[in-house]
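hey so i finally got around to running the thing on that chain from the lab meeting. sorry it took forever, my laptop kept dying and i had to restart like 3 times. anyway pasting the input first so we r on the same page abt which one it is
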Amino acid sequence: MPGPLIIWVLTALIVVAALTRNWWEPRLAAQGVRPRSWPWRWWLVGYPQTVARVWWTWRRLSYLNGLSVSMTPDRQVIGRNLVVQGTALKPRPPRRAWPMPTRTGLTLRVILHPGQTPAPYFAAAQAMEHAWRVHGVRVRSPRRGQVLITVTAADPLTGRAPVPKPLRPELLTALVGRTEEGEPWVISLRKIPHWLITGATQSGKSSLLAALVKELAPQPVALVGIDCKGGMELGLFGGRLSALAVDRREAVGLLAGVVAEIQFRMGVCRAAGKRSIWHLPEDIRPVPLVVIVDELAELYLTDGSRESKEEAEQCGTLLLRVAQLGAALGVHLVVAGQRVGSDIGVRVTALRAQLGGRVAHRSHDEASAEMTLGDINPDAVVTAQSITEDEQGVAVVAMSGQWVRARSHLITVADAAQISGTEPPANPFLIQSDPVEFTKGGTAA
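ok and heres what got predicted. didnt touch it at all, straight out
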């Protein structure tokens, strides 16, 4: 049979690579090649080892995790109508195809037994990680009667993630990092118009916002920022921003202007008989507008005074209106904060429900991760809690019921200066509201 023959060939390759390691590793290092990051290391050593573990442990792994099914007993001895309950007399593991290699691991397609569902395979993912000694195992069912097991051999997000190949530029699409599967991490505001980013201090929220601004800066997109920490984060990109609010009073005026702009765009679409600005002719289509909020809690915290409470109430109402009405009108919302729950202010829960894209960085408590990912997938909450302090920029990204670990690009001071030198689109606001005047690249007055 070809299966055992392939196993013997792979075993021979492993033995040869191990015996000659002291010979080829120093020679590669002398040529400036790091053997541990050498891509062929996975193909020559890692892949054969992982395939061998998968092949040799499959039967026992299936039996211990309830994936095997009992064979029919010998009818000549026991009889035709005997039904066996409890421990299987002769367990039969599910059929699996040959593990196919990928850039970061391998994929394994498994045929379900009649009557089986993918649920036991989802539960056995952690057991597979330990049995095969790999970084991660993801299980999904792309078609009826099959499950696809994706194995990640080592964590590709350790250290600074290399920049993937640039994608074809598309409006409101940003390549902000890469996923643990080695694929580009793309945020598309056309597909998912509003995003929520959470995480503790120094977890990578600001880096992700900077990566998003860097990708949107060359596009004909208006960017406005709200940074109530004195503009220390978003102020680095002040030259590219069409408006920047650095305290809550300015934020109220800026959001009022955005809501007025939304209402004006409604009138434009209504007059043209269209349901969205994307159905309008390009020559009269308004410029897309992205509102970026850094540290949401600063908009809701009050000092107990009546004026402070009224400002917080206005911010909550205006943000919710932007999230509810802006998607079809080219107005998008990206909100970042350490906690986004009802404990920081009114209407926060309603706002969170409108933010379809979720990004959870390292958090100090389970409740923060639960607020971000709990309504998407419980496993994503557990994964977000496992992010350590050494994994700055690593996050769990959830959208459309699916989730994946990813890491954003690191934006340097030189990158920020280049972004700030980019000219914003002319006149992103078709109208001006009374409570605030917008200055190019400056703060709201």
